[in-house]
């Protein structure tokens, strides 16, 4: 029996789930889940569930960074006298970390000095993520000396992208030398979505074709063909593709040169560990929905009165337009053989208004939803919920994605951790 900590440092949230793993063949059982959300907004909130009991729901806390959030959650979990399975920090046998950029790693890696330094060299390619996640890895090495740290990569699921999709039309010698290609992210989520939707539709994973949308603070789309990633909207870094809470998504690459005279300089928040230019800072942290609507909270954007808040209406319409364009593109690249369109991530799971707008703008592809099913999605309900209308050509589903259980399963099945 082992206790597994699964840590998911997103760009606006920190989510930690705790599992008990009986042996390498059993699915780890969740015993607690804690998350701090709103790290890019003024109000950070803690939600903590032990077993089936809600201990805190949207409880205001002060956390300015992923590091602060980690300290709060670790203290809540280890300090909880009623969480019987954890007597002390040394009970935590395995800690898995979601590392957004894993370069060419094809499987989860036990974190040694070498893997740590390699992941650090990739930090410039995931400026909102790798550095923050490595900060938490360092804290775990210091505060949980008995745990084995494992890196689980967002990029792994996309290793199946075909060459004509992952190649950029640039000098190929330079591309290969510098690893300049489409990597794709949110892979732990897409891997979970693929397994869960195949089970829901009672289809063999290897025969499943879906268009999946992971729409959170970072947003991406993925065409999944025969259960494998076939195309995805993020690229070398998580900046390209769809706009995010603070990210521009794809823009004309020349825009950077027209923005301001000093965009090529290092930004003031650049450090010895992370070299981020002013241009990268603007496009990653000062753009996206927040630049248009003045908030990163999509519930506020979707709920705003269109006449009174035209900026929110613009942000909403622009996001619908960009998401719909990827659905159209992926529908074609899957040759119209699409079992389901799947919504996931904070926005995909919680905004019925957004799902409705996207499905109506892609109705020409045969997608249709039932308004009553769409309005009654419950985040406490089943993992996959069906919102399709009777006459839809492909199913339209909502999946409560879970990157933490994906990591816990990946790690629990590693033989070397049980020997
Ligand atoms: N009730 C809601 N309606 C619409 N959007 C929501 C709601 N609650 C949260 N969100 C959006 O979900 C996003 C967070 O999604 P999540 O996938 O948890 O983020 P992260 O990218 O940090 O992992 C926030 O940017 C917020 O705008
Ligand atoms: C890759 C990425 O953008 O992740 P998140 O949405 O969790 O910030
Ligand atoms: Mg996320």
What does this protein look like?
With 419 residues, the protein is an alpha/beta fold. The chain is built from 15 helices and 14 strands. The chain folds into two domains: 2-153, ATPase, nucleotide binding domain (Nucleotidyltransferase, domain 5, 2-Layer Sandwich), CATH 3.30.420.40; 203-399, Nucleotidyltransferase, domain 5 (2-Layer Sandwich). The chain has helices at residues 66-78, 113-121, 130-143, 163-166, 172-178, 187-201, 255-259, 278-285, 288-293, 298-303, 310-333, 345-350, 352-361, 371-375, 403-412, and strands at residues 2-9, 13-21, 29-37, 44-50, 53-61, 92-99, 109-110, 148-153, 210-215, 219-225, 228-232, 340-344, 384-386, 395-399. The strands form two sheets. The chain has an eight-stranded mixed beta sheet, sandwiched between helices. Strands 11-10-9-12-14-13 form a six-stranded mixed beta sheet, sandwiched between helices. Helix 6 packs across helix 15. The longest helix is centred in the C-terminal third of the chain and has 24 residues, at 310-333. The two termini are 13 Å apart. Adenosine-5'-diphosphate binds at residues 10-13, 216-218, 245, 296-299, 302, 345-347, 350-351. Belongs to the acetokinase family. It comes from Bionectria ochroleuca (Gliocladium roseum).
Question: Which helices and strands appear, and what pairs or packs with what?
Answer:
Layout (H helix, E strand, L loop, with lengths): L1 E8 L3 E9 L7 E9 L6 E7 L2 E9 L4 H13 L13 E8 L9 E2 L2 H9 L8 H14 L4 E6 L9 H4 L5 H7 L8 H15 L8 E6 L3 E7 L2 E5 L22 H5 L18 H8 L2 H6 L4 H6 L6 H24 L6 E5 H6 L1 H10 L9 H5 L8 E3 L8 E5 L3 H10 L7
Parallel strand pairs: 1-6, 6-8, 9-12, 12-14
Antiparallel strand pairs: 1-2, 2-3, 3-4, 4-5, 7-8, 9-10, 10-11, 13-14
Helix pairs in contact: 6-15, 11-13
The chain binds adenosine-5'-diphosphate (ADP), acetylphosphate and magnesium ion.
Acetylphosphate binds next to loops.
């Amino acid at each position: 029996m082992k206790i597994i900590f699964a840590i998911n440092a997103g760009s606006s949230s920190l989510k930690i789930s705790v599992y008990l793993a009986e042996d390498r063949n059993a699915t780890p059982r969740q015993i607690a889940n804690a998350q701090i959300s709103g790290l890019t907004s003024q109000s950070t909130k803690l939600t903590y569930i032990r077993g089936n009991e809600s201990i805190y729901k949207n409880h205001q806390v002060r956390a300015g960074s992923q590091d602060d959030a980690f300290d709060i959650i670790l203290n809540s979990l280890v300090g909880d006298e009623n969480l019987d399975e954890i007597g002390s920090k040394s009970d935590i046998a395995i800690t898995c970390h979601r590392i957004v950029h894993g370069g060419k790693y094809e499987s989860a890696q036990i974190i040694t000095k070498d893997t740590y330094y390699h992941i650090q060299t990739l930090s410039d390619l995931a400026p909102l993520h790798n550095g923050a996640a490595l900060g938490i890895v360092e804290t775990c090495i210091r505060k949980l000396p008995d745990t084995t740290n494992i890196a689980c990569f967002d990029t792994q699921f996309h290793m199946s992208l075909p060459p004509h999709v992952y190649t950029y039309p640039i000098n190929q010698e330079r591309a290969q030398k510098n690893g300049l290609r489409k990597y794709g992210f949110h892979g732990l989520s897409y891997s979970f979505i693929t397994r869960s939707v195949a089970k829901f539709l009672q289809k063999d994973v290897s025969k499943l074709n879906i268009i999946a949308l992971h729409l959170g603070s970072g947003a991406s789309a993925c065409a999944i063909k025969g259960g494998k990633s076939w195309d995805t909207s993020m690229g070398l870094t998580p900046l390209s593709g769809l706009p995010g809470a603070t990210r521009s998504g794809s823009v004309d690459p020349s825009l950077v040169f027209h923005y301001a005279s000093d965009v090529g300089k290092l930004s003031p928040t650049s450090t010895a560990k992370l070299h981020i230019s002013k241009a990268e800072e603007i496009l990653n942290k000062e753009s996206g929905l927040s630049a248009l609507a003045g908030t990163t909270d999509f519930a506020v954007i979707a709920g705003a009165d269109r006449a009174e808040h035209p900026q929110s209406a613009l942000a909403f319409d622009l996001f619908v337009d960009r998401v719909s364009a990827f659905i159209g593109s992926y529908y074609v690249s899957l040759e119209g053989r699409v079992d389901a369109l799947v919504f996931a991530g904070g926005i995909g799971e919680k905004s019925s208004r957004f799902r409705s707008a996207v499905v109506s703008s892609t109705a020409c592809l045969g997608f249709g939803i039932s308004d009553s099913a769409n309005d009654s999605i419950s985040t406490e309900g089943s993992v996959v919920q069906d919102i399709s209308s009777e006459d839809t050509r492909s199913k339209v589903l909502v999946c409560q994605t879970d990157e933490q259980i994906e990591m816990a399963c990946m790690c629990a099945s590693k033989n070397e951790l049980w020997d």
